[in-house]
């Protein structure tokens, strides 16, 4: 049987989880980051490359059937760097003939006043990072329409799961939950909110890479719930047997790994925590089937990962 080559650009939580899934599906998998180091997924091959270097990018995607853009750019650099990455992908992946699947985020919609977000929600971001994301989405879809590139876009909500540290459900929540310490909540924790479990995101991206119906469109990948953040903390307490000790910040102020510089950039997206923030995944599920992992199961697996990571002293 002819094995497909799938190239994953970026080895953060999403890229690594996606690589695991693609290997399990029997694909040849090449993962790419700038250093060539970091966690290695068994059964995959790691290559060092800067994706903005078009010559090197052409080398790493040569022969690929599908390329996944899971690169991560710090908030403060996004307006400058994300368009440069897109330029390289449009050029190099377009010429290669491979399909491109890219991860997008809800910040390009901007505040909706609590109206659930669908793939038809206007791209009405108000800040520079959200506007950059919106322009990137529009440019990908236009490139597909012209025939320059075969692309599918997978949209995610706020991430959580194994390997996810810098998130509102990350290193400020799970380690403290395991020890009975103080966890962080942001904004109004009684509002409904969608969270994306990273293994569900990876599963959705793999579907977009394998199904021709995905091409030329933006898809909201599966999310559980919605749940309020208070409900999620209650489930965590039930799973750990530890009391809920929670500090709630109504404004984007530094806390733990969120330093002043990070929170200054995150201010643009703090509306995620001050109005209902619900992503509708029904177009994806009605087209491709499947559903998100139930929240309790996802939280239990995430707690296990943090517990094992702490036990290893990492």
From TrEMBL:
What range does the record give for the signal peptide? none
Q: Which Pfam families match?
A: Epimerase (PF01370)
Q: Name all NAD-dependent epimerase/dehydratase domain ranges.
A: 10-207
Q: Which domain of life is it from?
A: Bacteria
InterPro entries the UniProt entry points to: Epimerase_deHydtase, NAD(P)-bd_dom_sf
Q: Which residues cross the membrane?
A: none
Q: Which residues form a coiled coil?
A: none
This chain's protein is named: Nucleoside-diphosphate-sugar epimerase
Its source organism is Amycolatopsis xylanica
């Amino acid at each position: 049987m002819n094995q497909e080559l799938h190239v994953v650009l970026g080895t953060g939580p999403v890229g690594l989880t996606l690589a695991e899934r693609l290997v399990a599906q029997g694909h040849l998998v090449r993962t790419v980051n700038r250093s060539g180091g970091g966690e290695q997924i068994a059964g995959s091959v790691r290559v060092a490359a800067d994706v903005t270097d078009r010559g090197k990018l052409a080398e790493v995607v040569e022969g690929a059937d599908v390329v996944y853009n899971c690169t991560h750019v710090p908030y403060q650099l996004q307006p400058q760097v994300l368009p440069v990455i897109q330029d390289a992908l449009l050029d190099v992946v377009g010429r290669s003939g491979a399909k491109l699947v890219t991860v997008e985020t809800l910040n390009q919609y901007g505040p909706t006043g609590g109206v659930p977000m669908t793939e038809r929600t206007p791209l009405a971001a108000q800040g520079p990072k959200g506007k950059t994301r919106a322009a990137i989405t529009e440019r990908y879809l236009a490139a597909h329409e012209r025939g320059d590139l075969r692309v599918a876009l997978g949209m995610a909500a706020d991430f959580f799961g194994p390997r996810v540290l810098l998130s509102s459900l990350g290193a400020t929540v799970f380690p403290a939950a395991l020890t009975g310490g103080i966890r962080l909540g942001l904004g109004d924790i009684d509002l409904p909110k969608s969270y994306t479990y990273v293994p569900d995101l990876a599963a959705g991206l793999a579907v977009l890479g394998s199904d021709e119906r995905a091409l030329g469109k933006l898809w909201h990948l599966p999310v559980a719930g919605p749940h309020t953040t208070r409900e999620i903390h209650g489930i965590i307490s039930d799973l750990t047997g530890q009391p809920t000790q929670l500090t709630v910040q109504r404004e984007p102020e530094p806390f733990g790994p969120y330093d002043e510089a990070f929170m200054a950039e995150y201010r643009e997206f703090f509306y995620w925590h001050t109005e209902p923030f619900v992503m509708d995944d029904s177009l994806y599920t009605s087209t491709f089937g499947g559903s998100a992992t139930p929240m309790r199961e996802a939280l239990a697996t995430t707690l296990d990962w943090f517990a094992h990571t702490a036990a290893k002293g990492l």
